[in-house]
Design a protein that fits this description.
heterodimer, A: alpha/beta, Rossmann fold, Arc Repressor Mutant, subunit A, 2 domains, five-stranded parallel β-sheet, two-stranded antiparallel ribbon, 49% helix, B: alpha+beta, Heat Shock Protein 90, five-stranded mixed β-sheet, 7 helices, disordered N terminus
């Protein structure tokens, strides 16, 4: 596993003060010395992305909108912020729009600090988490359509294998063992799958952000 | 400490009660939705169905936001303020019940395999945070029938409750979850190496709920002495032939 990336500046967006503290503590445990700004709503968050942070931990259900809007705005500006969703609900219906918008991972807010710190380091090192329910959603999403073809790159057979096994509840290590691959290689496939999910959605996201008045068109 | 635990339990019970109330509300809403849909169909007005579905979807979203903002935030706060990993797990388990209500009621239906995959991931996470090892032993030749939402929910809750008992009462190091199919039955066993059945069986309502849920699955649930010195929970339920 590669060393955690050198993050020095992060943004935590969450409307619950306790959750903000918890996430700031997890970030500091994951990346010692990191400077963390906080925002309690979208408005404050938008005021904190000039210049864009290297890492943003974003709650989705904010009082004045959805955190996905922030991810879209960062992407449409071409910021290379590592966007991570922090959520209480990790089902595909909640997470999928955020992943499509360009989130590179997600964490559950109720995990303990050590587990969170480990997951944040993992995402930073290119090992995005994937629950069985999201893997199933991804399989459906990338299924070849009988009529209208997807504008997205299709999955390779190997990527499909990784998703199928993950959908069955296997851990990263077990997927690696079953496919006779290294953990590192399997993580690489997951990262590619996340990337493919975003391909073709950037223009969409930019338009959408402009429509909502988030950025100048 | 004891007082804190008592308060936590009461808050948890209250949260769970609201959760159940929300669940009922959701079920009533679904019944109502069914009636309305039937009504609209008899009038042959497809567009009206669409409008009604949209209205129901909006209502569902509203209930979801209620749950998220209110209960979700309270439970999260209980996790953050917990004095021990076991206390935190109690709040997490309720949060998981809440996730079930919010997500399963609107999620896509799944197969037995899908449900087991979700159960496995949840079990692994919970046990990891309290330092109990999980040995997941699922046979390769399980059939994979579709499970309706209700059945999936019961299966989730039974396993969640059994794991709660192991975490809270058994002082176990390991939990083995073994899943087999025999004839037209699914056998699901949870065996821990903790302090045995008696400490777990005295629990009361949790076990009653598990039994009720097993009946809802047309199955049965038993507690026996485990082969690893602890307790074994054995769930049997009939399986439709696989797809």
């Amino acid at each position: 596993m590669s060393a955690p990336a050198d993050f020095t500046r992060a943004l935590v967006v969450d409307d619950l003060p306790e959750a903000r503290q918890w996430m700031v503590a997890a970030l500091q445990a994951a990346f010692p010395g990191i400077e963390v700004a906080t925002a309690a709503n979208l408005r404050e968050a938008f005021a904190s992305i000039e210049p864009p942070p290297q890492l943003a931990l974003i709650d989705l259900g904010l009082p004045d909108g959805n955190g996905t809007q922030l991810i879209e705005a960062l992407r449409s500006r071409g910021a290379d912020t590592l966007c991570i969703v922090s959520t209480v609900f990790d089902d595909d219906a909640h997470l999928f729009p955020a992943l499509r918008a360009g989130a590179q991972g997600y964490v559950l807010k109720d995990r303990d600090r050590d587990a969170l710190a480990g997951m944040l380091q993992g995402i930073a090192a290119g090992q995005p988490p994937l629950s069985p329910s999201i893997a199933r959603r991804l399989l459906r999403h990338f299924q070849p359509m009988p009529v209208a073809p997807h504008d997205e790159a299709p999955l390779t057979p190997r990527e499909t294998d990784v998703l199928r096994l993950t959908a069955k509840g296997l851990t990263l290590q077990e997927v690696a063992d079953a496919l006779v691959l290294s953990r590192h290689t399997v993580s690489g496939y997951l990262k590619d799958i996340y990337r493919k999910l975003r391909v073709g959605t950037r223009a969409e996201a930019a338009l959408e952000a402009a429509r909502r008045g988030l950025v100048a068109p | 400490m004891t007082v804190m635990l008592a308060i936590t339990t009461i808050v948890a019970a209250a949260a769970l009660a609201s959760c159940v109330a929300m669940g009922l509300r959701l079920r009533n809403l679904r019944l109502e939705l069914g009636k309305r849909n039937a009504h609209a169909e008899t009038r042959g007005l497809a567009w009206e169905t669409g409008v009604r579905e949209q209205a129901a979807a909006q209502e569902r979203e509203r209930i979801y936001s209620d749950l998220h903002d209110d209960l979700g935030a309270k439970l999260l706060s209980m996790v953050y303020r917990a004095e021990s990993p076991v206390q935190a797990d109690l709040a997490r388990a309720i949060l998981q019940d809440l996730r079930d209500v919010v997500t399963r009621s609107r999620g896509t239906p799944g197969t037995l395999g899908d449900v087991l995959a979700d159960i496995r991931t949840e079990a692994a996470q919970r046990l990891e945070e309290v330092g109990i090892g999980l040995d997941w032993d699922e046979s390769d030749d399980l059939p994979d029938p579709m499970l309706d939402t209700g059945h999936a929910l019961h299966l989730h809750r039974i396993v969640r409750e059994a794991i709660t008992n192991t975490i809270r009462h058994a002082q176990a190091q390991h939990l083995r979850i073994r899943i087999r199919a025999r004839a037209d039955e699914l056998l699901l066993e949870l065996t821990d190496d903790g302090s045995g059945v008696s400490s777990e069986v005295s629990l009361g309502s949790g076990m009653r709920n598990m039994r009720t849920r097993a009946v809802e699955l047309d199955g049965r649930i038993d507690w026996v002495e485990g082969t690893q010195g602890g307790a074994k929970v054995l769930l049997r339920m009939p399986l439709e032939p696989g797809t």
